[in-house]
Each structure stands twice: as C-alpha cells, then as structure tokens.
Design a protein that fits this description.
about 90 residues; mainly alpha; single chain
Length: about 90
Amino acid sequence: MLREGVRRGIGVTDVTAANMHAGALVSDAVVDGMVEERLGRPDAAKGFVLDGYPRTLEQARKLTEWLDQRAVPEVVIHLAVDYNIIIAR
C-alpha cells in the first residue's frame, strides 16, 4: 500500500516517501491509518490477508483493537522459509 501510494501520489506525504526511500520504517500512525482505510473497503468485508503488517507491537495492538471492535476472528499463519530460498525467489 505504501509503495503504491508513493507511485500514485496518494495518501503518502513527501516526508514519508523520503523515509521509505532511505529505508526507514514509516510511522505507526501512517501505516495504521492506511491499513484501516483499506480494510474498510467493500472487497475486504468477507476477509483479507495482511502481509508485512503488523510490524511493531503498537501496530499489533491497533489491529487487535480494530478486529475486536468489528468481531472479526483472527487467523495467523506463520511461514518459515530458508533465507536462501527467499533470496532466490
């Protein structure tokens, strides 16, 4: 979502884009807001997959709060893949 926001010039400030380009993490508030907006769209009503989110404890707390408020059940799948396989892909 962040990369697309930068490409399209939507929802990402110049400061956030510069931070991303420098390899820094984007603030929890920005990421949480983008995720909340995206999950509020009709196509996510029947379910969704999050990849790379949450990345911080605060993001996890925010997501849990959001899910609890909407009575959305959580399912977590943790994939463990050898580093060399990931790099090869």
